[in-house]
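Form 7-S
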Amino acid sequence: MAFKILSTTDVHGNLLAYNFVNSDIANKGLSRFSTFLEEERKKGKVIYVDNGDINQGTPLVTYANANLKENIVAKALNHLHCDYINIGNHDFNYGSEFLYNYVKETNAKCITGNVKYKNKKLGSTDIIDIDNKKVALIGVVTDYIDHWENPKNLENLEILNVFETVKNSVEVVRDKVDYVVVFYHGGFERDLESGNPTENLTGENVGYEICDKISGIDVLVTGHQHRTLTGKIKDTFVIQCADGCATCMEILFDENISVNLKDISEYEIDLDMEEKFKKALNETEKWLDIEIGSCNKEMYISDTKTAQLAKHSITSFINKIQKETMGADISSCCLFEVMPGFGKKLRYRDIILNYPFPNTLVLKEMSGQNILDYLTQLSTYWIVKDNKIDINPKFLYPKREMYNYDMLDGIEYTMNISKSGKNYITDVKVDGEELILDKKYKLVLNNYRATGGGNFSFFPKLKTLKEDTRDIAEVLIDYVKENKIPVVYHIEMGKGELAETVAKNSGAKVKLLHSIHTVTKEDFDKGITYIDLMKQNVEALKEGLN
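Output:
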């Protein structure tokens, strides 16, 4: 009789079929998967495994993790009667104690074998006996986490080498079982067919190496890269599904093994499950709609590539806050692919949806040469295609990495994109002065990049001057709340360009303040007097002073 393993991965907080951008129903989420899972269980024996990165990603889990005593993700997985969990890199974002409690509150067994908490492994290999067949379930998470995670979140934790853990675990169980299935929260560093590298071989993703060099693995279930794939490397079946829980992975054990991707986007919503989280959802929505500030113009993003090429006002907005917060000469930030932008009213919703990742700010000391090298590496993001500037395909496949292109403020530069592929930087000025290669500058950026994330290997070697322990979203919220500058003034004899620039990045209104050096002929003809202009100034000042 056939049986199957069903697996989700990179759910990223999508517990409900709910879209927080427009407060509407979504075609994804665990509450849809719940209906699919129930139907599959009625057909036969099913083992359900979540492959990590589930505790972070939506406002619901952001709010719940900060305000609720119980772990909301554990509650969701318990509703689904999840059998096993593996840990993902984003499950470390809230610290070691949070991670430990998540594992403890979830009724599922943790199989992550390469993570120790206070010198004791969080999980271990398990062997299940089903239809007279024994299946070993091995779990590991990418060991590259300490390159980008906040060190405070890794206190009391030790992450062991992925390859060695898998190799040793397979050797222990291979002769005792009929099948070996490895759940790896990581992806593939090489093309599945050719074996050619598809990224820098940093060790972040070693799925190909596992299949190529470790014999005895029947199926490798992967994640992390948010790819959609099925295939085979040597004797090992491989599978991965996209993020958000619109699809899931199926391993079918019948006469032969097969791996399949299952679309769950059209399944009915489990209303019982959604009812359990109704209160938390309502609280989240109320919190999200709290207004914390305003902008004088809308800053929506319709297309990430266009926003990158034109340097969208939202990056200047973020960079301004980062630069002021950390006392930097230069600020660097990126755009995420799914980033709606801001309307005129700024709510918690807008900040959280635009910056969902719990990154923090780091101030680095950089020489002029370091900055030039940084800009040069950033330029590799662009190529010339059909006589137009386009995104380099290596940032789109095998994983879409549009977040690995940074835009800088406090500095001016020209990025020359060459048809030959040898891009170069010219006309570099910091605060209006030419870049000096041996001069020291202060640059603020997120901790992911500061620790080398995105293959910027030189950043960890540079001196760290200061760190801010708050999430960047929290920094943005605090700044907007603390700096409610309602009005920027300009006089009638000026062009108002400076005022417009300040207002653009602060959310303030622009108001005219009359110098009253004289009354213009136009005003005089209208009967407007000195006193009238003074009254207009009083009203303008009233608005500025609240």
